[in-house]
Amino acid sequence: MVARIVQNIRPNQIVDWYRANARDLPWRKPGTSPWGVLISEVMSHQTQVERVAPIWLEWIERWPTPHDFAQARIDDILRAWANLGYPRRALRLRECAQVIVDKHGGVVPDDVDALLALPGIGDYTARAVACFAYGKNVPVVDTNVRRVVARVERGQALGVPGKKEIQEVAHLLPEDNGPEFSVGLMELGALVCTAKAPKCDACPIAQDCAWLAAGRPAPEEGQRRPSQRFEGTDRQVRGKIMKVLREADSPVEQAIIDAVWPDDAQRSRALFSLLEDGLAEQDERGYFHLPR
């Protein structure tokens, strides 16, 4: 059992700040369906919400229900995913929609355990959907929440992922208005209590922050995760190949693929991984195209 942490984070302050400073994101508008919330959470994973918003709007208009999406062609989905990155998420989301249709009558479940049983849905996403779509007062812990709690409550620069943090955040939840507090905590971490340049002067709970009171100590050993470079990685090469396939009206020959990257070995490795992941296919002529 995790001991209750000293509560420096005061829910009313977080909610008041959120109401005055929240970003105008389309999935936060009243009337957004649970399916719309689920799509927004999957799309926003490791992706800036500013990039997600226009694509989310297109998706929710084109595929407003899990049933609509479950019937969509894979190539249409991958083209609509555009440049969000990690396109396997799109395939898993289609699998998720199919299970929602087959096992839940086309209705996104509201129970955390049922959500966790869906393809591609992890701890964070399951709790986010239960909380933000259905108003369940469950702890929602992403990187931003983890960082705010670590700093304000424990005086640490960064949080370390772990199951116990879900229990710690659960202790902070108010009995009423928990979902608004949860989204406010996330927003505070995204806009103010950032990893590299926190805006402590603009923080509504700075006077109670243990990290600020301790002189903003640097991350302890094991806390800082190495930043993931993108330039020159297989992921970048995969993205370049996927762009060619998305924009092509017909299957493309090997020479067109070869032109996207000069390193033969890396390009071949990236292409093979796309084929293995089900994100690309090769026809009998040796040409490449998106799966259908």
UniProtKB/TrEMBL annotation:
HhH-GPD domain ranges (all copies): 43-191
Coiled coil regions in record: none
E.C. numbers: 3.2.2.31
UniProt keyword annotation of Oxidoreductase present: no
InterPro entries: DNA_glycosylase, Endonuclease-III-like_CS2, Endonuclease3_FeS-loop_motif, HhH-GPD_domain, HhH_base_excis_C, HhH_motif, MIG/MutY
Entry-linked SUPFAM superfamilies: DNA-glycosylase
Keyword entries, A-Z: 4Fe-4S, DNA damage, DNA repair, Glycosidase, Hydrolase, Iron, Iron-sulfur, Metal-binding
Cofactor(s), by name: [4Fe-4S] cluster
PROSITE patterns per record: ENDONUCLEASE_III_2 (PS01155)
Enzyme class, first EC level, given as a word: hydrolase
Chemical reaction(s) catalysed: Hydrolyzes free adenine bases from 7,8-dihydro-8-oxoguanine:adenine mismatched double-stranded DNA, leaving an apurinic site
Membrane-spanning residues: none
Family per similarity comment: Belongs to the Nth/MutY family.
UniProt name for this protein: Adenine DNA glycosylase
Species per Swiss-Prot/TrEMBL record: Corynebacterium coyleae
